[in-house]
């Protein structure tokens, strides 16, 4: 991990009552909500993370709540731990696995979030909430919120990210940012204060992961092992046709150049059409080596996709180019996307430059 995992959002407004549904507290300033579609940003905002899991995920409780079918009650994971220990990476991993992730939510609002999920008719089946020292004013309410969840028979797990003092100091110093609790003292003072603040929560955790010597990929692998079940992590692909004369796509992970094939532009009866037309597609793939190229590149993508999954990469953009982005690249993109979809890869096709001429 190349960057520090702590955040510096301010908090404002402290709820006074024990439970959100009784007092309706205002959302914390800086709270961020994201769905499990993923942002494609990857874990670049994380520092290096560390090694052993010294706890196991608890089974929790799953009994029908009064007035709400058991199947409608969302599964809940609370992510907490030391600043700099990898909370953001853990949250992004769950987001990529399809969880509804809420970052920096005051603990008093957790029961309300679960209640809203239960009313979503199954659209929000799994919720992950990040709780950290940005909400330290609300930690007194966390115990009451957990008690409320237990009374409602909500299945919940607490994931606690731990790390050694030496590793945390190194990460904070590498990004030249203060610890959220150090005040006028040193980084080690802030770490000590945070450990004391989180001591009780760590003792209640169902899963404790020591990230002292883990890198970001190893931490994601541990989260996948706990929450992905038996399913292999899903890879999503965007296949984008483009014209080289309009420039390379800035978000391309892989670039394919189809200009080695004859250009249908120079065939008068095909010039008005695009690669979406059967006549153009048939012409492109009747050329020598066109089908062989597609077969071999599909095999190469299988190898690349397996490596992406191992490294925790969930999104890939394959840019397929020709001169104008109208004929060869469009026809090839459609064929390639169909091959990927047949292999179980969730695929979207985008024709960036078609129609620009």
Structure write-up:
- The protein is an alpha/beta fold and 357 residues long.
- The chain is 34% helix and 16% strand.
- It is built from ten helices and ten strands.
- It has helices spanning 20-23, 87-96, 110-118, 139-151, 165-175, 187-204, 216-227, 278-285, 290-310, 328-342, and strands at residues 32-34, 75-81, 100-103, 126-130, 156-162, 207-210, 236-243, 254-257, 315-322, 346-351.
- The protein has a six-stranded mixed β-sheet with strand order 1-3-4-2-5-6, sandwiched between helices. The protein has a four-stranded parallel β-sheet with strand order 8-9-7-10, covered by helices on one side.
- Helix 3 (110-118) links the parallel strand 3 and strand 4 (126-130).
- Helix 2 (87-96) packs across helix 7 (216-227).
- Residues 1-68 have low confidence and may be disordered.
Topology (SSEs and partners):
Elements: H1 20-23, E1 32-34, E2 75-81, H2 87-96, E3 100-103, H3 110-118, E4 126-130, H4 139-151, E5 156-162, H5 165-175, H6 187-204, E6 207-210, H7 216-227, E7 236-243, E8 254-257, H8 278-285, H9 290-310, E9 315-322, H10 328-342, E10 346-351
Helix pairs in contact: 2-7
Can you give me a brief rundown of this structure?
The chain is 34% helix and 16% strand. It is built from 10 helices and 10 strands. The chain has helices at residues 20-23, 87-96, 110-118, 139-151, 165-175, 187-204, 216-227, 278-285, 290-310, 328-342, and strands spanning 32-34, 75-81, 100-103, 126-130, 156-162, 207-210, 236-243, 254-257, 315-322, 346-351.
